[in-house]
Amino acid sequence: MLLAELSERLLAGDRRALAKAITLAENLDQRRDELLRLTAPHTGRAHILGVTGPPGVGKSTLVGALARSLRSASCRVGILAIDPSSPFTGGALLGDRIRLDGLENDPGVYVRSMATRGLGGGLCRAAWDTARLMDAAGFDPVIIETVGVGQTDWEIRHLADTVLVALSPGAGDSIQALKAGIMEIADVFVINKSDLPGADQTRAEVAAVLDLQQVWDWLPPVQPVVALEDRGIPELLAQVAKHKEFLNSDGRWTTKRAQRWKTELQSVLFAKLQAGLGQWQDTHVTEQALIGVTSGLLTVTQAADCILEWASGCQVATDGV
Amino acid sequence: MLLAELSERLLAGDRRALAKAITLAENLDQRRDELLRLTAPHTGRAHILGVTGPPGVGKSTLVGALARSLRSASCRVGILAIDPSSPFTGGALLGDRIRLDGLENDPGVYVRSMATRGLGGGLCRAAWDTARLMDAAGFDPVIIETVGVGQTDWEIRHLADTVLVALSPGAGDSIQALKAGIMEIADVFVINKSDLPGADQTRAEVAAVLDLQQVWDWLPPVQPVVALEDRGIPELLAQVAKHKEFLNSDGRWTTKRAQRWKTELQSVLFAKLQAGLGQWQDTHVTEQALIGVTSGLLTVTQAADCILEWASGCQVATDGV
């Protein structure tokens, strides 16, 4: 299939075309760049939701419940589940773990699982692409579930319009969630398993942390749910809709979309610079600079300046990248 | 105090000088660069241990138990506890939480807590500096406890010689630890709270994951301990010593030290390039490039090339940084 045809079908909402496009993006295929260009003008419509939280709070169940409720309101829902990959197994750890009871054959739900590439890398570039492609194919909202660890959460704040942070009474005290550094990125807090003992305490702890901050543009609401039984889900979606209204009234809806392309451009620029830097790594100059540093003759900054000066002479920094 | 004097006192093992030097590094003081130069030739002796694992497994208690046991063998122990910082409170979340029962006034133990700067940033540069400075001041081993989230763990693998990954039966099933992406960085596994029910299962699960990998240079041992009662700690330290022997026999002890300076140099180079990139951000060229991308006229790569070409003409990339 030609790229133009693939793109046209995708824009018409064709699931097979979407699947193929995401695979191209995932494989870092050289056609990815052109595919993004063809679909770019048709992106920016979908409300992108991030769902994150510590392991064990029931994020996948929550995403399933959200999807069911959204389907009953006739939304076409895109779901992207980010799994950590393991060097041991070479693939995603958890596979297709979103619980879609009753939605398995629903053409209005599109689910994709994706492995992060390596440790600590955060969301892979393909995750950003996938959100864009689902958006271009007319899925709205697009829900992205992350693994709930540091770097990924930092990125989800940029990729998503609305970040739902899920906690549960069973998942340890809230200081542990703070430890994981995810309290600060929440637009909406979800207390899942809120029928369990301790739910009120978890809720109170979240409220206490929120109280520490004096001024809010948007005070994150705290919504108790029981995702397994679909309880509290309509109320949660109402909070999500309110946040969308806030983003629109505030101008952030538009700013976020511009910023995402800027981030994409930056990452390409950065990769090009990094490739340039890589060329200097095994040079004689770098070797000498390191000897200078370890023997205490040069500061690290002086060593870096030596390398940059040399690279400047070679024109590597700008021409070679 | 002059920098040369500070450095001399630090090298003589003076705790006040060490404290002051770490504070300079933490504050990104301009004297940091020179301080590292003065101490660089005296680093590389200490065995750097990383202690990580999911929240709630008792990492701090474990570090306390390790310190007590090392003190009874007359080692001078440096401890660095990395805390996530919170934009809400503006400071470290957990403070001095290492449990040092009986070691509070021991001059042979030096403890420092440090906040990560912002979310997702991983170990701050000051953590690397602190390990170097403790090393230069004659502390050996230097134990670094991290918060057990993705990005930090990725970095601890580079900063530490030996990474101890702590798990416990109470902290959820091992798939959750895999989720957090920390299984792959372990040189030694520690099953803490191994007197609790489920310890054998946790141990078996770790062994099963290790079995997936066919070839090992070093097969990570799995050591059960009860850190609160100092049980299993001498056995654990024996495993740590074995790993040090392995690193030495293998040449990695030396390679790791060279690589750490290379990483430091790279990060300075990278910061300089990034600063250069920052200068292009709000230019007319970038604005035009972004309009080209969002309207589908340019691919992102083409847009990046435009900016680099322009920057090359301006000599920003090499002269401006």
Explain briefly what this protein structure is.
Two copies of one chain form a homodimer. Helices cover about 50% and strands about 10% of the residues of chain A. The first copy, chain A, is built from 13 helices and seven strands.
- Quickly count the helices of chain A: 13
What general outline of chain A do the C-alpha atoms trace? globular
Lateral arrangement of strands in the main beta sheet of chain A: 3-2-4-1-5-6-7
Cα distance spanning the termini of chain A: 32 Å
Low-pLDDT residue intervals, each spanning 5 or more residues of chain A: 86-96, 118-122, 315-321
Secondary structural class of chain A = alpha/beta
